[in-house]
Amino acid sequence: MAEDERLILAVNPGGTSTKLGLFRGIRPVFEKSIRHLPEELEKFGTTLDQLNYRKKMILDTLEEEGTPLDRLAAVVGRGGAFKPMESGTYEVNEKLVEDIIDGSTLQADHPSNLGALLAWEIARKAGCKPYIVDPVCVDEMIDEARLSGLPQLPRTSLSHALNIRMVAYKAAEILGKPFNRINLVVLHLGSGISVNAIRKGRMIDTSQANDGGPFSPQRVGALPTTGLARMCLSGKYTWPEMKVMLLKKGGLYAYTGTDHVGEALERAAKGDEICSLTLRAMVYQIVKEAGAMAAALAGDVDAVVITGGIALNEQINEKISESLRFLGNILVFPGEKELEALVRGVLRVLDGVEEVKEYR
């Protein structure tokens, strides 16, 4: 079948929605976001219990769009928080399905885990193969990057690997070099920010948005260690309160009351000094971390790549670029195109660019 005729269904389940897209090659036929009302989701005891509910909505959508299941060449789902894995495209197998259902994953009850199960179920009905691509648990860190300074607290790799790897491939195309021959510093700028070092196609280090790196619109990034320890032991805060403070209401939000970068920029332009200072500090921390990742690559950097939702704000891109221009090429891929990234991962396997990997 010619490439432009292969139909691939991509599914990305989230906490309150299921995004899906039908692609002919890399060209979208349609993309939809199915919203799930809280009162609907409350009927289910766990996230896994939502599987048939979400699957029916996807199948109904395909029927409404006039797409027979037997026309699908592949189904690909968003990879979840499984065990640490190499990057790449994996065919969903019984072992992965069993691990998700048994709860033997890094996060047993996470919506993204449904991606593999939905791909598995729908592909079986369609008579094609199910895949996942670059799950958040991609871990290719070098050994030196794992030591934090305290054996009880090793550094871990959780990142926006799906979007990071897609823009890295796009950067390789622009640079005219094979993906496995380039070195990149990739800045993924979203509600959480991760700064990543890619050496010859391998993500050797990441700042891990939940546990370090720059502060972001919602997350605190790296903090003064002893001060944080004192806060946790003060008796003033419970763990749920600390978790919200660190991951949902930290960073830009903690200083300004908004986690929307566009709003903060508007307020800064109108003279809000707190917004102006906080945005400058966030950019400062981003470029400082980028410099550290460039050092991890021994200064051999083919390009700095900026991506994620914050990259839709040209002012932020310009400020970052001004400070990192000394590293060479600056490439910007605004937003997160996760459905496209899933499809591109499958096409790399179908076209023989990459070998499919097996979950073990």
In short:
This protein has 360 residues and is of the alpha/beta class. Helices cover 38% and strands 20% of the residues.
Can you tell me about this structure?
By secondary structure, the protein is an alpha/beta fold. The protein folds into 2 domains: 158 residues, ATPase, nucleotide binding domain (Nucleotidyltransferase, domain 5, 2-Layer Sandwich), CATH 3.30.420; 175 residues, ATPase, nucleotide binding domain (Nucleotidyltransferase, domain 5), CATH 3.30.420. 38% of the residues lie in helices and 20% in strands. The protein has a 7-stranded mixed sheet. Helix 9 crosses helix 10. The radius of gyration is 21 Å and the shape is globular. The two termini are 31 Å apart. The mean pLDDT is 94.
